[in-house]
Amino acid sequence: MAFTVQPRKNTYLRIDGKIFYVNDRLLKTQGRQGGLIILKLKSLDTGNNSEVTIKSGSKVEEVETETKEVQYLYSDESAAYFMDTTTFETVTVSMKMIGDYKYFLKEGERTLVLLVDGVIIDIRRKASVELTVVQATDAVKGNTANNALKEVALETGYKVNVPMFVKEGDVITVNTDTGEYTGRVSN
Description:
There is one protein chain. This protein has one helix at 95-98, and strands at 2-4, 12-15, 18-29, 35-43, 49-55, 60-62, 66-75, 79-84, 90-94, 110-116, 119-123, 128-135, 149-154, 159-163, 171-175, 181-184. It is mainly β. It has 3 domains: 2-62, SH3 type barrels; 66-123, CATH 2.40.50.140; 128-184, CATH 2.40.50.140. A 6-stranded antiparallel β-sheet has the order 1-6-2-3-4-5, with no helix packed on it. The termini are far apart.
């Protein structure tokens, strides 16, 4: 249990027994009164975002996390199932924790989970993923002017708008934060 007076971005804090992820940290100075630290937090229990203001110099508990490599197997409505790559045991992660990132998990792909005291608190998300287009309509002549887009379905079931030149079987890159097309992977 380490306490800190300067919580950093992309760390985990324990406040009132609950664990929060620090999305952002702002320092606001008030002249002679000292500064305030404004923390933008995400609750790992509920997934809700909140903002907390603490006085500069106040101690907060920083949580030490452990990482473990797992391999994605499959998912249903309530949970995603992974295999621990060292013990080969099945690890269950609730869909509430994964959220929309479920559309970016590919079967057999390895990823990292974060643990605190042996309990999974979060999954390490990649900034972008490469996914194969499984369903796309062909471009229509005359419809390719002025940066036209079309919707395609990807191997995970996710649908995204892409330029007209993308066709079925192409591998594209998708930004996991915004869910938008960022490019086509060259063959």
